[in-house]
Amino acid sequence: MDKRVIVMVWVTMMALAGSLSAVAAEEEQDFLGIITGDLKSTAHQIGMDLKALVMRSNIHLAVFTSRGSVENIYAVYQRPGNHLGLVQSDVLAFVAKVDSDPRLKLIADKIKWVYPLYNQEIHILGNGEIRTFGDLDDKRVAIGHAESGTYLTSRLIFEIAGVRPRQMVAIGDSQALAALKAGNIDAMLTVDGFPVERLALEVAPADGLHLIPITHDRIRSFYPASRIPAGTYPWQATDVDTVSVMALLVAYDFRNHQCNTIGNVAWMIKENLDWLRFNGHPKWKSVDLSEPVSGWEQYPCVKNFTSATVEAETESSPVRKPNPVADAIDAVFRP
Fold first, then answer.
1. Radius of gyration of the chain, Cα coordinates, nearest whole angstrom
2. 260, β-bridge pairs
3. What pLDDT is attached to residue 297?
4. What is the pTM of this model?
């Protein structure tokens, strides 16, 4: 075929190239998934902040909702597409310490932490009869879904303090808040970083609800003291002393391409922490990525990752393998 004819055909086909370019660009993206929490949780907002950050480097991060940390750690372990997750430190500690269960040993072996992120305060919202943590004895208390971190934390602090609610109801925040307003329960617990969107938007002064302090010495020997400042919520007039648990970003222990992609995400978080503090949820302002995490191993792909890793992959030129199409192009356009 005449070279000019070939070139004319090529020019005509450029219209098709435009429609295919979007597909090519999509193929060049790296895809990851992160499992977070309830749609109105701080964890989900943190996930959305990370999605906004990494899309600038052509990484598509799908943000999945969940019932909480207990679901998340198992999802990262065994569900395809959940490469990353947000998990409470006490859930990680529980998995690590219950070494009599072979399934938990497998999870502990394959889940690595990426970064410690932010404190999740234990919020106890109750009616006017509940003034102290001890007042929850013989009361009806919502303690979160069985797959939530709230559920584990609630069971632990009641056991530590020796407080025995009459009924511990395993329901999520939305159901719990409705039940509390209706008078069907006396209090609800939720573990999340303030400000929690649901508590800010769905509780009003007319509801007659308030945050209950946690100052119990035995609880504070396990969980660090924290404070929810006055005005965090429109209906909250005074500071409330409580305790908190750390939320960590964790990953499955990949040893393939996802390894470098997750390392890249971690590097971007570190390099753009100021951007996250300015544009993201208020909890980013308190993030300390160097805070120690005991009992678990940091993901090696995060520890060993630097910007040079991406540059090396991008700049490397693999040896060209035989390709008859490439050979034909060279033949047509050879001088």
1. 25
2. none
3. 82
4. 0.81
